[in-house]
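Interim report to the steering committee. The following record documents the input for Hemerythrin domain-containing protein (259 residues).
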Amino acid sequence: MDIWRLIERDHANIAQLIREIPNALNGPGVVRSRERLLSDLLDELHAHAVSVDAGLLTLLDRYAEARALVEGLRREHEEVMGDLDRLARTRRPASGWLNTFEDVTYGVDRHLHRHWHELVPLARRVLSEQEIREAATAFVRARSRVLRTAGRGSGASGGSGDLVVAAVAGLAIAGAGLLAWRSGLLGGASVPSRTPTRERGERDGPRRGQPLSDRAAASAPGPRRPGEDFQARQERLLDEAIEETFPASDPISPSRITR
């Protein structure tokens, strides 16, 4: 897991939402309405802040040279979220709503710009390789916990609450199943991988009609090796399962914050 890529992906997702909101429609029956997208933006910023705090800010707070930046970013995040919350409570956009939105989201851009151009360089310089790996794991796990609570709690819109809960439950089941398979609890690790004999002229890749279970067995890790640390193996498999079921997707148009 590369924490720098995870942070950059979050920033791009947030930027995409900011670009979509001014052009969104409002009203009953509109799936991606302005109100819905603004709620998504609040949830995405909250999840990103919790993840960054767990992954980087908590570690950097141990270093005297980083404490001022850590405190400043935490305070700045609360101010940005407060501005967006007040804007979201405006159910019927009054005159000048878009101008207010531009002002508020400029503060979001500036905040994320500080993440990438101040926080990330400092973390790269101060933290050890081991601490960076720990930060990546804490980042992913914190984001997963936020998603399991379906956003910001009472502040999140309730229109899609059932969908969010269902999606999170599905991801949890998928992750647990993958972890159980890879851990050998379902007998997957003991299934020997088979390399099918290809006919002359047949292309590389699975043969027509090859069972999906054979393909899964071919890519599954083997049984524990003698002397292998069980705890380390479980941690590695858990991290892989979390990363492969990580719900955030790459944005449609990934571009960096430039303001």
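The two ends are 28 Å apart (CA to CA). The committee is asked to note this result when reviewing the revised timeline.
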